[in-house]
Design goal:
Blueprint (H helix, E strand, L loop, with lengths): L1 E7 L2 E8 L3 E6 L5 E7 L2 E2 L26 E6 L8 H4 L4 E6 L2 E5 L8 E9 L6 E9 L5 E12 L3 E5 L11 E5 L3 E3 L7 E4 L2 E4 L7 E4 L5 E6 L3 E6 L16 E6 L3 E13 L4 E12 L11 H13 L1
Antiparallel strand pairs: 1-2, 2-3, 3-4, 4-5, 6-11, 7-8, 8-9, 9-10, 10-22, 11-21, 12-16, 12-18, 13-14, 13-17, 15-16, 17-20, 18-19, 19-22, 20-21
Length: about 300
């Protein structure tokens, strides 16, 4: 395993974490992103090639206000002010271990916080630990939550284990609809609840979905025969402060990408205080089904559990 400085996607000074099976490339140039998460050379992330090498100057409006790759953020989505220093500004990168690195943002004057992101790749396999720490650098109390915004490659199938005994939604998920509405009883032919899982096997009518599962993991199967797994802590006894009290959001965009979004509970931070949230990633080989609506859920869950146990 190794950590090194490389050039990647038009950017100089990226950090590569590598072992015999996987490579992670971190890009500090536009918001502290993961720009490659690859299993034996096959990237599980969607990275927009039109943005290669592009950076954002203060006040500049470009397509990179919507950066691609492995993005992270803070919420709540509908309340926090704009925070370009965190989202598209330049970050500082440092190698912190044999296969570990850290990226650090500039402080955000609008939110009053500074973010660090720590990444550690296992000695073998694809296990990547991603920890975001938020520090209140202002002189006032602030409230926020963790919000991952990772772009998986498009045309995939999302599988979320459900916890119906804890759900507040009639169908165990909601769909965001035009006009800032949230449909709590959605019906869509691309989405179904089957064998204890929410399964999204095609592009729904509206892209943004919200789930309040407390199982602590979900998976996304891509047509390149890679299964992207995310594991993260959940807290049934804490308050989740996104609009619908979500632990997970999925965003399907025209079969181009699927945004994979673990969401953390609300954190109230006094000046100088910090809060951290860790999500873990795996990517493993798994055959994409010949028919999108015929996925073997039991076998996928078994493969995910084996990856997380190993």
């Amino acid at each position: 395993m190794s950590a090194s400085w490389i050039d990647y996607a038009g950017y100089q000074g990226c950090v590569a974490l590598e072992n015999a099976d996987a490579r992670v490339v971190l890009g500090p140039h536009v918001g502290g992103r993961v720009i490659e998460y690859a299993w034996r050379g096959e990237n599980a992330l969607w990275l927009n090639p039109e943005h290669n090498g592009v950076t954002v100057e203060p006040g500049q409006r470009t397509p990179l206000l919507f950066p691609s790759g492995g993005r992270f953020d803070i919420g709540p989505e509908l309340i926090l002010p704009k925070r370009p220093e965190l989202w598209v500004g330049p970050w500082e990168a440092a190698i912190t271990g044999p296969s570990a690195a850290r990226m650090t943002s500039a402080p955000s004057p609008t939110v009053g916080v500074q973010l660090t992101r720590d990444f550690s790749l296992a000695a073998e396999g694809s296990h990547l630990a991603c920890t975001q720490t938020v520090r209140n650098v202002s002189d006032r109390s602030t409230r926020c939550n963790y919000w991952a915004r990772t772009f998986g490659r498009g045309h995939g199938i999302a599988v979320v284990p459900l916890t119906p005994e804890l759900s507040r939604f009639p169908h165990q998920y909601v769909m965001y609809v035009p006009g800032s509405g949230i449909d709590v009883r959605p019906e869509d032919p691309a989405i179904r609840v089957r064998d204890g899982f929410l399964e999204v096997f095609d592009t729904p009518a509206y892209p943004k979905l919200g789930i309040d599962s407390y199982a602590g993991w979900f998976a996304y199967l891509m047509p390149n025969d890679l299964l992207f797994i995310k594991r993260f802590p959940t807290y049934p006894d804490r308050v989740y402060i996104e609009a619908a009290g979500l632990t997970i959001s999925l965003w399907y965009y025209q079969d181009v990408v699927c945004e994979l979004e673990p969401i953390g509970p609300g954190e109230t931070l006094e000046p100088g205080a910090t809060a951290a949230f860790t999500e873990e990633w795996w990517v493993v080989p798994f055959a994409f089904p010949e028919r999108r609506d015929a996925l073997d859920l039991a076998r996928l869950a078994e493969a995910a559990q084996e990856a997380m146990a190993g």
